[in-house]
């Protein structure tokens, strides 16, 4: 009997295998509410390529404060853009001082005002601008409180 109980308890402690690489987009994010000491769930978030702001990808942070995949609307030509395709297309363009060849500039906007509630944060939106290189994965964590935030290049 003790062995069966040990196996039952052990099965509950096992973690799920990580999502396959194909199940996540090349740009992901994670938001932690540092005041509450927990993930920031249900934050409405928008992602866009700076050189093509007409195409927006949207998502809402999950219970763990993470976004692994983004949704986009179908464009006027009936296509549904993909982040991976946009990164590749922009990487092939001529480079500039801000955006070297082989890369693209992206922006993530977090609707922190809706998360904290009207008038309960100094930052109703947090927008981060960062450089993306083709062929790499970019994880953008946001550490958030009502009166400060910080970010870094995650892994």
From TrEMBL:
<keyword id="KW-0659">Purine metabolism</keyword>
<dbReference type="GO" id="GO:0033971">
    <property type="term" value="F:hydroxyisourate hydrolase activity"/>
</dbReference>
<dbReference type="InterPro" id="IPR036817">
    <property type="entry name" value="Transthyretin/HIU_hydrolase_sf"/>
</dbReference>
<dbReference type="GO" id="GO:0006144">
    <property type="term" value="P:purine nucleobase metabolic process"/>
</dbReference>
<keyword id="KW-0378">Hydrolase</keyword>
<dbReference type="InterPro" id="IPR023419">
    <property type="entry name" value="Transthyretin_CS"/>
</dbReference>
<comment type="similarity">
    <text>Belongs to the transthyretin family. 5-hydroxyisourate hydrolase subfamily.</text>
</comment>
<dbReference type="Pfam" id="PF00576">
    <property type="entry name" value="Transthyretin"/>
</dbReference>
<dbReference type="InterPro" id="IPR023416">
    <property type="entry name" value="Transthyretin/HIU_hydrolase_d"/>
</dbReference>
<comment type="function">
    <text>Catalyzes the hydrolysis of 5-hydroxyisourate (HIU) to 2-oxo-4-hydroxy-4-carboxy-5-ureidoimidazoline (OHCU).</text>
</comment>
<feature type="domain" description="Transthyretin/hydroxyisourate hydrolase">
    <location>
        <begin position="27"/>
        <end position="154"/>
    </location>
</feature>
<comment type="subunit">
    <text>Homotetramer.</text>
</comment>
<dbReference type="InterPro" id="IPR014306">
    <property type="entry name" value="Hydroxyisourate_hydrolase"/>
</dbReference>
<protein>
    <recommendedName>
        <fullName>5-hydroxyisourate hydrolase</fullName>
        <ecNumber>3.5.2.17</ecNumber>
    </recommendedName>
</protein>
